[in-house]
Write a structure and sequence with these properties.
The protein is an alpha/beta fold. The protein is 47% helix and 14% strand. It contains 19 helices and 16 strands. It has helices at 12-22, 34-43, 61-71, 86-94, 108-139, 147-159, 176-185, 204-212, 229-232, 248-260, 286-291, 297-303, 318-334, 344-352, 358-372, 385-389, 409-423, 428-435, 439-448, and strands at residues 4-8, 27-31, 47-53, 76-81, 99-102, 166-169, 194-198, 213-214, 226-227, 237-241, 262-263, 272-273, 277-282, 306-309, 341-342, 377-378. The strands form five sheets. A five-stranded parallel β-sheet has the order 2-1-3-4-5, sandwiched between helices. The longest helix has 32 residues, at 108-139. The structure holds adenosine-5'-triphosphate and magnesium ion (MG). Residues 142-144, 170, 172-178, 283, 359-360, 363 line the site of adenosine-5'-triphosphate (ATP).
């Protein structure tokens, strides 16, 4: 599509000459005066440039530029000056004119270059302005002023406009997907697709055909050809969530995509090219997986060009109040604006909790509290029992015996019983009594564990 330009001059012959000259490259709209020009400016928000005479009957060109720029700031403006109006044109450049050109126009080629330059500059400025405003808009999806989060924002700003692969690490519910979307939305690929793949949800054969697609009859159930997520993400971003869970054979295929930017459909032989940015996320210690030989080191380095680590909520307790107030506003509005605040005691209880489910858990709890609240202000009575009864973070380890990351209920029970027996110098009866269980139960348990 040709860019649109508007030519404003009271002399018809000049309008026609310019229109004839420019029509090969531009769609030309014409106006004899400022009033008519403003109508066209309002009706055509996609105008790339306006050329206007300075001296015209009615409103002059300088006035017109001021109004037209107010109506459409991203449009470029060039003024045509006759003898005696140059000073006016110079003045107009303060009000938004981008350039001026002296009449009579003897060198149309020269004039055309100036027109092209003004359009290019204006469109670049527009692009920069929109990227900047999107940047702030997208980062508004994040709440938190802790140094750890500031570091995350800085990395997003830096990484987003590039095509570098990013690995996002952090515990569950800390905002990994939010970061992935922000990286996409703030990149030059923002208009392309954002495709998320939950790697852990699919078996390895399914995952491969999901990612790379398959040819007809690649396997028994493949009744038609299928386009994979990589092909679908062409020109955009693919988000591989829970990347630690992909198996060895898929890791090899993924590495090949990263190295060659090509892949083949399952059962296919054709190399398919795709222009994709890869963002991966994990809530595991992927470095540890590499050391244990569960994840390929070469793949790890390819994915990890930029590493963004999200802090657990308990490591940034100062952000809890900010998040609470944000979610209060969100859910307060959704629930008819009845609940508008939280009292200090209730907030303190939330700040003291350890939030194993991080921001997602906090968000869910606030929603629940708002829905169930009795008054306008959330109070300690609205805080769920599980949060109050949990030991405060500072005393977390005091009352609990042996506790490891992988503690199941059965393991905890075993540890507790053995600890009690040890504490009573091997006297099982007294240990059972202290634990509040019968001697019979204790013996049955020890039997189960072959520890009689
Ligand atoms: N800094 C933040 N500010 C506001 N909301 C946030 C922030 N971080 C996360 N959230 C919100 O918390 C919820 C969980 O975030 P998200 O889904 O991005 O987490 P995740 O790290 O991908 O979790 P998982 O590992 O479980 O997939 C979302 O509703 C998200 O909008
Ligand atoms: Mg997620």
């Amino acid at each position: 599509m040709k860019p649109k330009i508007l030519i404003v001059d009271d002399e018809k012959p000049l309008r026609d000459t310019l229109a004839r000259w420019f029509k090969a490259k531009y769609e030309c709209l014409l106006a004899p005066d400022a009033a008519e020009a403003m109508k066209i400016v309002r009706e055509n928000p996609d105008l790339a440039l306006m050329i206007s005479d300075v001296r015209m009957p009615g409103e002059n060109g300088v006035e017109l530029v001021r109004k037209a720029k107010a109506a459409n700031p991203s449009m470029a403006c060039i003024l045509l000056t006759a003898y005696g109006t140059v000073d006016l044109a110079v003045e107009a450049m303060k009000d938004g004119a981008d350039d001026f050109f002296q009449k009579p126009i003897t060198d149309l080629e020269q004039f055309e270059l100036r027109v092209a330059k003004a359009i290019k500059t204006a469109s670049l400025e527009k692009e920069v302005a929109s990227l900047k405003s999107r940047l702030n808009e997208k980062l508004e999806n994040f709440t938190g002023k802790s140094p750890a989060m500031e570091k995350v924002y800085a990395l997003i700003r830096k990484a987003a406009p590039t095509s570098a692969n990013v690995l996002i690490e952090g515990p569950s519910g800390t905002g990994k997907e939010l970061v992935a979307r922000a990286l996409h939305d703030l990149s030059t690929r923002a208009r392309g697709p954002f495709i998320a793949v939950e790697c852990a949800a699919l078996s390895s054969t399914l995952l491969e055909s999901e990612l790379f697609g398959h040819e007809k009859w690649a396997f028994t159930d493949a009744k038609t050809q299928k386009i994979g997520r990589f092909e679908a993400a062409d020109g955009g971003t693919i988000f591989l969530d829970e990347i630690s869970e992909i198996d060895a054979s898929t890791q090899v295929k993924l590495l090949r995509v990263l190295e060659t930017k090509t892949f083949q459909r399952v059962g296919g032989t054709e190399d398919i090219k795709a222009d994709i940015r890869i963002i991966a996320a994990t809530n595991r210690d992927l470095r540890g997986y590499v050391e244990e030989g569960k994840f390929r080191e070469d793949l790890y380095y390819r994915l990890n060009v930029i590493d963004i680590r999200l802090p657990a909520l308990k490591d940034r307790p100062g952000d809890i109040a900010l998040l609470v107030s944000r979610f209060l506003r969100e859910f307060g509005e959704q629930n008819g604006g009845r609940v508008t605040g939280i009292d200090m005691k209730a907030l303190k209880a939330l700040e003291d909790y350890s939030w194993p489910g991080n921001v997602r858990q906090l968000r869910n709890i606030i929603e629940k509290m708002v829905v169930l609240a009795s008054g306008e202000k959330l109070s300690i009575d609205d805080v769920p029992e599980e949060i109050i009864s949990a030991a405060p973070r500072t005393a977390e380890t005091a009352a609990v015996p042996v506790r490891t990351a992988a503690t199941t209920l059965a393991e905890a029970e075993k540890a507790q019983i053995l600890a009690a027996i040890a504490a009573h110098n091997g006297n099982k009866s007294r240990a059972a009594e202290a634990l509040g269980i019968s001697r019979r139960t204790m013996h049955r348990k020890l039997n189960e564990w072959n520890m009689k």
